[in-house]
Amino acid sequence: MLKTLLFASLAALSAVSTGAQAQIKAEHPRFCVMSVGPTQMMFSAFQENKSDEIFCQHVPGTGPTMLILDARQPELRDMRIEVRVLRDVGQKDWRDDLDVNTVAMLPAGKHLAKTGTASFTHNFAEEGDYITLVRATSEDGLKEYVGQYQFSVGESTEWVMAGGALVAFAAAAGFGVWRRGNATRKPPQPKAQPEDSEAKPETSPVRQST
């Protein structure tokens, strides 16, 4: 029974891994769009030496990663763009410990002026949850748009929790099947005691001769 539960747990872990990869590859472009003030940008990530896939919500592993931002409105091309990658530590406001939480930065500049696309590479050393922060400022400084996009690198918290829950479910299901099998199994019947083969025959009264 222990082998059965172990097999079920391993199968569940495999399902989690396969499901995660399937979701990564099947990300719809609409999930890769971030709002920057009243405008929109598309966020994507690419790991050249690891995969040909383009990611946005979930980057599969650490290492050098190109982050790409595409403007969807011409207005952004005329604005100065600053991009930061922050550790997602549950901060309520992006200004909280901004410099401490910043792991990478593209300094402010008109990066979108020519093609509407800005990109830079960061070597992610740690798995976890991150935030892409975009600040767009007009030349005269009268307008500032801010946008945030959350993504994960490697085994994010949600995938670990999902995997643990699935393994626990598989183990519980296996235990339930085992219990039901034992409950329906007939209890062993007691064996009949053999007759005593050495029982002495009944004695008959002795006839007396006269």
Task: Outline the structure in words.
There is one protein chain. The chain is globular and about 70 Å long. Strands 1, 2, 3, 5 and 8 form a five-stranded antiparallel beta sheet that branches. A five-stranded mixed beta sheet has the order 4-10-9-6-7. It is of the alpha+beta class and 210 residues long. It is built from three helices and ten strands. Helix 1 runs antiparallel to helix 3.
Count of extended strands: 10
Q: How far apart are the first and last residues' alpha carbons, in Å? A: 80 Å
Secondary structure: helix percent: 25-40%
**What is the mean predicted local confidence, pLDDT?**
76
Per DSSP, what share of the residues sits in E-state strands of 2 or more residues?
25-35%
Cα gyration radius (Å): 35 Å
